[in-house]
Amino acid sequence: MILGEDLLIDGRIRGIPVDLTCEDATDIIGLRPSAGETAFPVLTVSRSAFVANARAMFAYARAADVDLAPHAKTPMAPELCADLVESGAWGLTVADARQARVLLESGFRRIVVANQIGGLRSAERFGRMLGHYRNAEILVFVDSITALESVAAAGREAELEVGVLIEVGGARSGARDIDTVREIAARAAATPMIELAGVSAYEGASALADPQATREAIGRLHELARQAFDLVRQMRPAGRLILSSGGSSFFDLVVDDLAGLVRADSNARLLLRSGAIYFHDHGVYKRGLAAMDHRGGFEPAGLGRAVDAFTPALRLWAEILSRPEPGLAICGMGMRDVSFDQDLPCPLSLWRDGASTDVSSTARVRKLNDQHAFIDIGEAADWQVGDIIEFGISHPCTSIDRWRSIFELDDNGAVRRILPTFFG
Questions:
Q1: What is the residue-wise DSSP string for 197-224?
Q2: 19 DSSP assignment
Q3: Which of 24, 200, 311, 379 has a 20 to 30 A CA-CA distance from 363?
Q4: How many CB atoms lie within 10 A of CB 326?
């Protein structure tokens, strides 16, 4: 168990009972949220579900012959990142320089910065940071000459060559046409402190409400990525290249569209950056995997349906504080504790005296305030103040980033370790 100084029992970490006065967090180990032994609300991750999800994703990667660089922005928990690297991840992905520094300080040395790094001042700071980690392999997205010049400035500051992936895009950042890609590639090939390392995209931003329109939009994006990769290969005929795309809902389409191109190239790899898949959820990603199964996209893994291979690993636990009227229960959990950008949390079970009752089909979160959840339960429901509600979530990224630590649970629902997060 790795604990930082900020995990002392002093009331700052949610989920730690306020009556504990010991010098460290060892008294937390073995406590069960379902039995009311932690403070509430508290966010937990099931160890067995996380491990099983990783096993399923890595099985898919082996079957599809692709590499994984899981997006660390989802948990920003170095211990969980270490689990994924030990499972065989090629590297890790981050969204910005601060996240890169967290991972570098934690000992990781192969990182994809899946974003542009900003202007000259940000580039110089980025370069000074890289100068402290001279044995690290860093890849950075660029989608313009200006972005490329920033990376070159970072390389000069660090006195290191920095790898760039030319990002193509259609709904977020990214070069929009092959002529722009050609201009960036030519400048990169001629710029000191730059290694032209390949091409990147993010297909998730191209998703639309209609599945067929989504497929067509992702297809157009990946066609541009194919053209860009061919162009970069012409400029670097003998260089090892990376072609990267892949969120957690459409990684099968990345493989469908791009794997053949990479397999035909003896010196290239397809790199998926999915991050939320290792946590899964009861909302947006549940629907995403159902759609993947409809496409038959998970079949190469040989593990059956994706909806069966992946298990939601995160839970938010909260206590009923008020029963102000029939049919309504109010829990001490709200927008400061859980995601609500892509669906409200889902009540799963009611726990009382160590026993659980399934409420997934009879209870619904109506709305969230800052620290209250309003739950419609039906006028005849026997819910009491002090009952504990186990919630599923939708969108892991915007749930975990509300927490300075996650409680990891064993198969008995007891805390096995506390995982610090580093969201700033």
A1: EEEE--GGGG--SSHHHHHHHHHHHHHH
A2: T
A3: 311
A4: 10
pTM over 0.90: yes
First to last CA, the chain: 21
Peptide bond between residue 17 and the one before it cis (omega within 30 degrees of 0)? no
On the question of pLDDT at 26 being above 80, the answer is no
Whose tokens are 């996240």? That residue is 99
What span, in angstroms and rounded, lies between the C-alpha atoms of 98 and 79? Answer: 17
Decide if 304 contacts 296 (C-beta within 8 A): no
**Nearest Cα to 317, choosing from 26, 9, 80, 45?**
45
The DSSP code for 272 is E
The domains located in the chain, with CATH, are 5-47+311-420 (2.40.37.20), 48-287 (3.20.20.10)
Q: Is a pLDDT exceeding 80 seen at residue 10?
A: no
The per-residue pLDDT for 25 is 64
3-state secondary structure 287-312: HHHHHHHHHCCCHHHCCCCHHHHCCC
Residue 18 is predicted with a pLDDT of 81
In which region does residue 13 sit, left (phi positive, over 0), alpha (psi from -120 to 50) or beta (all else)? Answer: beta
Measured CA to CA, the distance from residue 382 to residue 366 in angstroms comes to 18
